[in-house]
Amino acid sequence: MINKKVDDIKQALVGVKNGMTFMFGGFGLSGIPENAIAELVHLGVKDLTCISNNAGVDNFGLGLLLQKRQIKKMISSYVGENDEFERQMLSGELDVELIPQGTLAERCRAAQAGFPAIYTPAGYGTEVAEGKETREFDGKMYVLERAFKADFAFVKAWKGDAAGNLIFKGTARNFNPVMCGAATITVAEVEELVPLGELDPNQIHIPGIFVQRIFKGAHYEKRIEQRTVRTKAV
């Protein structure tokens, strides 16, 4: 069995260059690859195209890359929590492609499965469909959406082993699974890196064939995007 373990984030990001297209797992701030994002900020790579459900917040997640002007284009579904994102978009500094959330997930899944494109009814008759092929199936119109092409996919899992097998925990099992194998190189950071054979095969969410590099992450903050509490009754 191929050993895909690397010692640290620096080895995991070997080959990262300016102008590349990256995928980032996570939803809001849940399950984001914190170590990978921090190292990309440190490396200072720029002119990046980033595919992610959202753009983090102003001082965390992909918001850190936005602060350093490292992102040229964002391909996202929801970006409402980031003031810097809004400023750059409205000023024309940032190219933005907004995609229906289900379409974003399926374009990742298509890339993962090796399909060149999918047909979806989402967006037909709107600006989303402008300039795209449309086709009727059983009396309903669909829009052709191409699978994503990315250089690296950065995902975060709860547990993994040296073969790249992954288990996600709770809501962190969001966009992470569909981005595994959807890029040329998938880098997985995990909270727990266990010996081969320790993971129950019936519990594995993503088999190692979809992962090229895996390492044990560190110093996870796991911030909460919006915390809502109610006043304790007197």
TrEMBL record:
GO terms for molecular function: transferase activity. Keywords: Transferase. Gene3D superfamilies: Glutaconate Coenzyme A-transferase. Belongs to the 3-oxoacid CoA-transferase subunit A family. This is CoA transferase subunit A. It comes from Algibacter miyuki.
